[in-house]
């Protein structure tokens, strides 16, 4: 039995991943700015995902996953300095602060793993994604840097989804017309769901992916590579 710690534990992706890992016999600790949702073996609440804000946890942690993110889509000329700074703080700085806070716990594990969540928009240019792509691009750079620095003891990987049906994406999928348009843009004609991300996250967190590190795994229906005529 392994022990995992999730930041952003109230998100749909995190909850689905926790459920899958618990079904496999593992323990999952939730960490969130929100109240305990009852989906985890234990829960810690934090005021923010910033440096110095994370609670101390006195046990071995075999894997961490950082789920917080933003979907802040605007024309470039309407993105404010505050928008850029907020997206970067949540997606990139928060991830760095989280891993740094629990690195001593990870080092006590025999085979630890770190998983981040990026976006297909980093590798595939998309309009109105400038701020989100900048922030998540930094996260992908962090993934590769930490994978090199922490090898061979700790593996570090990242998942890059396309549009996924979660509460965070409600504005983009909030009508039948929007959902149909999103499906039609995808090579597999599918909008992802939290289970699609959970399957990938559980794979990367556990020893079934023991020979994988420094990778950005596209879970996106082919959006980052395929163009169908």
Could you explain how this protein is built, in words?
With 229 residues, the protein is of the alpha/beta class. The protein is built from six helices and seven strands. It has helices spanning 12-23, 81-107, 130-150, 170-173, 176-185, 194-205; strands spanning 3-7, 27-32, 42-45, 63-66, 112-117, 154-161, 216-219. The chain has a seven-stranded parallel beta sheet, sandwiched between helices. Strand 5 (112-117), helix 3 (130-150) and strand 6 (154-161) form a beta-alpha-beta unit. It is globular. It starts with a strand and ends in a 10-residue tail after the last strand.
Low-pLDDT residue spans? none
Strand order of the largest sheet: 3-2-1-4-5-6-7
Average pLDDT, all residues: 95
- Percent helix, as a range, is 25-40%
Round the Cα radius of gyration to an integer and report it. Answer: 17 Å
Major sheet attributes: 7 strands, parallel
General shape: globular
Q: Strand tally, please?
A: 7
Content-based structural category: alpha/beta
Order of helices and strands: EHEEEHEHEHHHE
> So how many helices?
6
From the structure provided, what is the oligomeric state, counting identical versus distinct chains? single chain
Strand content: 15-25%
Compute the separation of the termini in Å: 47 Å
């Amino acid at each position: 039995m392994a022990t995992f710690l999730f930041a952003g534990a109230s998100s749909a992706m995190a909850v689905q991943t926790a459920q899958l890992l618990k079904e496999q016999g593992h323990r999952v600790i939730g960490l969130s700015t929100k109240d305990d949702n009852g989906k985890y073996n234990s829960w810690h609440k934090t005021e923010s995902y910033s440096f110095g804000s994370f609670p101390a946890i006195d046990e071995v942690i075999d894997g961490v996953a950082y789920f917080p993110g933003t979907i802040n889509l605007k024309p470039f000329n309407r993105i404010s300095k505050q928008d850029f700074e907020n997206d970067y703080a949540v997606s990139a700085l928060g991830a760095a602060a989280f891993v740094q806070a629990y690195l001593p716990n990870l080092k006590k594990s025999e085979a630890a793993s770190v998983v981040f969540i990026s976006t297909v928009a980093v590798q595939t240019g998309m309009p109105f994604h400038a701020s989100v792509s900048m922030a998540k691009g930094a996260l992908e750079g962090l993934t590769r840097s930490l994978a090199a620095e922490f090898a061979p003891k700790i593996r570090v990987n990242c998942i890059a989804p396309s549009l996924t049906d979660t509460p965070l994406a409600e504005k983009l999928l909030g009508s039948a017309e929007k959902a149909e348009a999103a499906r039609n843009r995808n090579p597999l004609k599918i909008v992802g769901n939290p289970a699609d991300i959970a399957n990938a996250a559980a794979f990367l967190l556990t020893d079934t992916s023991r020979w994988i590190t420094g990778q950005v795994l596209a879970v996106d229906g082919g959006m980052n590579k395929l163009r169908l005529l």
